Amino acid sequence: MSPAPIRIAAAQSVLVPVDSIKGRGSATAMPHRFEQRQRERYDDGWGTLDQDAAEEHLPVATQVIEEHAKTIVSSNQSPDISFDYSINPYRGCEHGCIYCFARPTHSYLNLSPGLDFETRIVAKVNAAERLRETLASPRYQPRSLVLGTATDAYQPVERRLGITRRIVEVLAECGHPFSVVTKSSGIERELDLIAPMAAQGLVSVYLSITTLDNDLARILEPRAASPARRLRAIRALADAGVPVGVSVSPVIPFINEPELEQIVDAAVAAGASSAFSIPVRLPWEVNPLFQDWLARHFPDRAERVMARIRDMRGGKDNDARFGSRFTGEGVWAELLRARLRRVACKHGLRMERRPVALGLFRRPVKPSAQGSLF
């Protein structure tokens, strides 16, 4: 007997069967916030609705869209973010994490923050060339840089395209420090580059582990590496001398929040030396996508989860204010911070970012259209 369909609360009202979304975080290509047209299905007498229903059972393939970026290094102006520059080799992320705060960025591409975000991946194929040009500029000054902030730099398509690999090669050549947060074991492919950099104090890596429960991981972040595989990646990095930490982010009340201490314990056993966590954030289109996910997978506690989130967000679904958006406020937010401090203290973990070594930076030779004469 097939599961009952679920009605999606979006501009386009669609019945989506539960078994048609396997392997994807979102159940719908919901309209983005800039969409000015709304579409509604109707029966035209030619079996259109039946055909649409049949097509919804087909798996949604991933499409890679090549982009030649004009710039690749973004500067940070937010007062509550601790890094100065970021590089995102891709737009969108195939991991399909339903809670991803970056989903609304697909709206600027006139694409859905829902299924499009995890199935239509924009690859910045000239990222390494643009990075070399930026670092070669006399105006560029090295500062703290994070690789992959609005996307996972090691998502599945990276294995084939190698864009992140070429970026790391440039950073290694120039002695430029960087950090990376990832859910992928693909970071292990870069050990030949990052282990020597780590020995010079130029690299720190954080593995994002939100749960140790495989069943929860499959619906929370369906195409990311399994929790056990991420723990093995921590071990491989630590054994190679790379400073590695764990990000228990986001913390979702009554979903993965009960596992906070167990996740940190497991990461420390694997070799993690630092930890941090951020309460779940629901900006823009993430809010309806997340609440739909809750209704589909956790109908017994959906209202309770949202009530607790609102407790930490000043009574709202989301609080975008600087200073509180990454921490939350109130009793429950402070309780989460206290729990993390306690388990970090037990293991002697670092909770602040590692200092950045800038003195080894070597400016690359700026590429010349005529090439080198010698």
Characterization of the model:
With about 375 residues, the protein is of the alpha/beta class. It has one domain: pyruvate-formate lyase- activating enzyme (Alpha-Beta Horseshoe), CATH 3.80.30. It has 12 helices and 12 strands. The protein has a 7-stranded mixed beta sheet with strand order 4-5-8-9-10-11-12. A 3-stranded mixed beta sheet has the order 3-7-6. A two-stranded antiparallel sheet has the order 1-2. Helix 3 runs parallel beside helix 5. The N and C termini lie far apart (about 75 Å). The N terminus is likely disordered.
Name of the CATH class:
Alpha Beta
State the total count of DSSP E strands.
12
Biggest sheet details? 7 strands, mixed
What Rg do the Cα atoms give? Answer: 22 Å
The CATH topology turns out to be: pyruvate-formate lyase- activating enzyme
Broad structural category: alpha/beta
* Shape annotation: globular
Question: Mean pLDDT across all residues, rounded?
Answer: 89
Tell me the number of structural domains. Answer: 1
Helix content: 25-40%
CATH architecture tag: Alpha-Beta Horseshoe
Q: State which percent range the strand residues make up.
A: 5-15%
Q: In terms of per-residue confidence, which ranges show pLDDT below 50 for 5 or more consecutive residues?
A: 1-20
Total of helices: 12
Strand order of the largest sheet: 4-5-8-9-10-11-12
One letter per element, helices H and strands E, the order comes to EEHEEEEHEHEHHEHEHHEHEHHH
Distance between the termini: 73 Å
